[in-house]
Write a structure and sequence with these properties.
Blueprint lengths: L4 H27 L6 H9 L5 E4 L4 E6 L3 E2 L5 E6 L3 E3 L2 E4 L4 E11 L1 H9 L7 E12 L2 E4 L9 E7 L9 H21 L3 H10 L8 E2 L3 E6 L4 E4 L21 E7 L3 E2 L8 E6 L3 E2 L5 E3 L4 E10 L9 E10 L5 E14 L4 E3 L5 E3 L6 H11 L8 H8 L4 H11 L2 H21 L6 E2 L4 E6 L13
Antiparallel strand pairs: 1-13, 2-4, 2-12, 3-11, 4-7, 5-6, 7-8, 8-9, 10-12, 10-21, 14-16, 14-25, 15-24, 16-19, 17-18, 19-20, 20-21, 21-25, 22-23
Helix pairs in contact: 6-9, 7-8, 7-9, 8-9
């Protein structure tokens, strides 16, 4: 079929349009970057250098040893972290992380020396000064710069009991007597009886070797910032166990006291501050108390130790939490737990009052008095009677009493022991409550009205 001049013109124009369109399409495809496979994108993200957690200078660490060590300078020791360390609200170093260190030097413990000499023990007791310089992480050992610690003592974890019914004066003392009896029986029945018997024998000698007791803990601070290699670690909110349905939500805030607090000098109304070291999340996993916040409170009641064995008392509460941004909110927090020196032998009641346990007993002075009087009996074997009576001044007093064969001397040694026991149980001043700086405490408080993620009004 033939077409005219007009048809040929239309065909020419159509062909030209198709050619221009194909050229334009080719240019567009050429300029488009090739699609990147999903696997390669993942590899690229994984290849990015991980971020590092930085623990600032002054970060407090509490380390506990798990076995006995000889009391000598240069002794290598190994401990574990008692509490986790957080940085910027994320877990940086988990609890039970191993640390390595050594005993730097030994300092004389004059108080322990004088008390031991009254009992016939002339061992030159010491206090070890230790320094931990290595943190053992899953990624490998990490050197740390930390201050020397000399405040070591076996640690006691206080926990507030539940609400107890009001009891009469005699009921309270009967419960206390049963508790003391249970503790004394546990001394002979709890695990480790052989070691305790050996230590009891040692303390009857005029001289015996020293050791650093197992479960001794030290608190010290970093003297330089520490960069901790980042590893896949769970955020604090992921480890929160939701409270039972229908139960009231109570937040547990872990903090460190910023200064020493003692019943010997504290007065009602004195300010108390504590630094929050772990972020707090609510049951919806919303941040409510950031790490680095400050708990602000006051001493509610305080009573210093007095004569005749009357111990001190201390109670403090918190009324405000101040966030790192500078603003704050009102709270009502009471002490629910603390980590203190075991030698203080403190107790914590349901209202948050801390007081040393009363360990005085009339049994020991009376028993020692009766045994001392046995030396004055003229009937019976003098060697056996003087040996039974000479209970004072340790093994030295017993040997002297038996060797001298003098009833009056043996009775004098025995009455000395009875008098010393009577003084320690009833006449000397009681003990004060002492919370050193950086004592770790746990505060229980009711939830705030809203998550504290930003200042009010924003």
């Amino acid at each position: 079929m033939h077409s005219g001049p007009g048809g040929r013109s239309i065909l020419v124009l159509a062909s030209a349009a198709l050619a221009v369109g194909a050229l334009a399409g080719a240019q567009t495809l050429k300029q488009r970057p090739p699609a990147r496979p999903a696997a390669r994108q993942s590899e690229s993200l994984a290849a990015l250098p991980p971020a590092n957690a930085v623990l600032p200078q002054g970060t407090s660490l509490q380390v506990e040893i798990t076995r006995h060590y000889p009391m000598k300078a240069g002794e290598a020791i190994e401990g574990r972290l008692l509490h986790p360390i957080f940085a910027d609200g994320m877990l940086a170093v988990p609890e039970n992380t191993v640390l390595h260190g050594e005993v730097v030097s030994l300092q004389p413990d004059r108080k322990a020396r004088w008390h031991a000499r009254l009992m016939g023990d002339f061992t030159p007791f010491h206090k070890p000064q230790v320094r931990f310089d290595e943190l053992l992480l899953p990624e490998g050992p990490l050197n740390i710069s930390a201050a020397t610690a000399a405040n070591g003592a076996p640690v006691l974890h206080l926990t507030a009991p539940g609400v107890t019914p009001r009891r009469s004066f005699f009921a309270r003392y009967w419960a206390q007597a049963k508790s003391n009896l249970h503790d004394r029986l546990a001394y002979f029945t709890a695990p480790g009886k052989g070691d305790r018997a050996l230590q009891l024998l040692y303390h009857q000698l005029p001289y015996h070797p020293e050791r650093i007791e197992a479960h001794t803990a030290w608190s010290f601070e970093l003297t330089a910032p520490l960069m901790v290699p980042d590893a896949p670690r769970a955020a604090p909110a992921e480890a929160i166990a939701a409270p039972p349905s229908g139960s009231a939500e109570i937040w547990a805030v872990h903090a460190l006291l910023t200064r020493e607090l003692t019943s010997a000098s504290a007065k009602p109304g004195d300010p108390v501050q504590a630094l929050v070291v772990e972020p707090v999340f609510d049951r919806d996993k919303q941040l409510v108390v950031p790490q680095g916040s400050t708990l602000i409170g006051r001493v509610a009641s305080a009573k210093a130790a007095r004569s005749f064995g009357r111990n001190g008392k201390l109670r403090f509460n918190f009324q405000q939490v101040r966030f790192p941004e500078g603003y704050g909110k009102q709270v009502q927090g009471a002490l629910a737990g603390a980590a203190t020196e075991k030698t203080q032998d403190l107790s914590l009641d349901a209202e948050g009052t801390i007081t040393p346990r009363n360990r005085s007993s009339a049994v020991a002075p009376l028993l020692l008095t009766m045994l001392a009087g046995r030396a004055l009996d003229t009937d019976g074997n003098i060697t056996a009677q003087t040996g039974v009576a000479s209970n004072g001044f340790g093994l030295v007093g017993r040997i002297v009493g038996v060797a001298a064969g003098d009833r009056n001397l043996a009775a004098g040694i025995g009455f000395y022991a009875a008098g010393l026991s009577f003084y320690e149980n009833f006449l000397r001043s009681g003990r004060d409550v002492v919370f050193p700086r950086d004592t770790r405490i746990e505060i229980q408080t009711n939830p705030l009205r809203a998550p504290v993620l930003k200042p009010e009004g924003q």
